Amino acid sequence: MASSRVGQWRSSARVVSTCLLAALLTCTLRCSECVKLSNIILILTDDQDVEMGGMTPMKKTKELIGDAGVTFSNAFTATPLCCPSRSSILTGKYPHNHLVRNNSISGNCSSTAWQKEAEPFAFPVYLNKMRYQTFYGGKYLNQYGSKDAGGVGHVPPGWDQWHALVGNSKYYNYTLSVNGKEENHGDNYEKDYLTDLVLNRSLHFLEERSPNHPFFMMLCPPSPHSPWTAAPQYQQSFSDVKAPRDGSFNMPGKDKHWLLRQPANPMPNSSIEYLDNAYRRRWQTLLSVDDMVEQLIKKLDSIKELNNTYIFYTSDHGYHTGQFSLPIDKRQLYEFDIRIPLLVRGPGIKPKQALQSPVLNIDLSMTILDIAGVNLSTVNMDGQSFLPQMAPSLRNGTERPFFLIEYTGEGNSSEDPSCPKLGPGLAVKGRSCASADHEPKADQAGVLHRRQLSKRQIKPCQRAGRTPALAVNANFSNVKMYQGFDLHTYLPKFLRDSSYPVSIYSLLWCSKPILFYFYHTMKVDGFAVDARKKDDIRVSRYL
Asked: Is-catalytic flag, 82?
């Protein structure tokens, strides 16, 4: 009897030991999987367009990232201006939620309020909590490092290595904040050219990092932003290139919104010569970024991390060179200013994909966090992950149904008590403002894009700026604008206005001396409704 009990005990002990061993092995495997989380790199250029040929110089980038992964043909910025756009990328939020209105301190660009209220919830903070090793190099926000923004000693949370440019884009004679310490640079190409410096320091980071944890790098070269200082070896490149002359180049904007009615038309020869020179020099600066991509991928391959690394290539917004007689700039809600390049390669992404799914730059943060294994339900952002579109074998999901593009101008916010608040904590306020001729004195028009399959084929809008961004069906062959469905189902809560009939919305943001104007279309064939006048008007009237 005793012998039988001992045998049973030994048998039970073996079972328990086997179970414990299996559990330990499972735990070990899971920990191993955690260590093998994918690395992520985000390359963010400054002012690089798509519509005006901005990707033409990027032959290596298109081959090494686009051909090796996916190219999005309908990627847009939430706002066509540097600081608000970059703030949207970092927070995953629309400008009306992160409250950065323009490139000034008073417009909340890198302000102390931004540092207190937005930076602690930027996506790198979540990555750092997931034990990602993080590196930042290059331009951050336009007012970063200024005295009013806390100086170079301020290092945003979430970054292990911080090599950020103080102020706006430069190539030489700039100051960096290196982990909170001031570092001044001169005009020696070998030591100071910013695009190359960002590359070299990122390569050093890759050499020094721990192999036991994944890494995230955000590389932000100044190209192709002014002053368009090319590396010496590229200063004679593209000598015969001129800005594109098709589409709306040097066209009058007399039937467009008030800003487009201001430029002289036709442009003087001096303006055309200037913009042609700017166009060439922009391309020249991008050749160094193309080299950066090549060197980075070679390094990843040599350390055997290339196949476990997602690489995103994009820009903060587009650009124009002569469209509607506007020589150079951004800020306009037309395709040339709001479309951005977006190329991605990485694990699970099949090569040579061309996707038409609409993607917004506020989606970058959620996609990166999705890759990093963050529970997205715990993250308060407006964006959504587009990992399901890139790699459906890894994630299930749907493309975004709509998006908003907005810009509030360079004026100071108004404290007019007649301006109703648009949402909790929203600093910018709104009211209906119109001139005597009943045309909205708006700085820009907000745009709500809505994709809906339709039996009726709509002719795609012409490219290169002849039609406004509001005509979302540019390059979308099967798009139907708002018609006969309840926008309350789709619009964000802050846009719902019971004072107008359903599907009619007007959003005016008070700003001195100019406003922000929100439009949507109700009719299919390029017409819009002005919610104040209640007339049908052509979209191009104000855009």
From this structure: yes
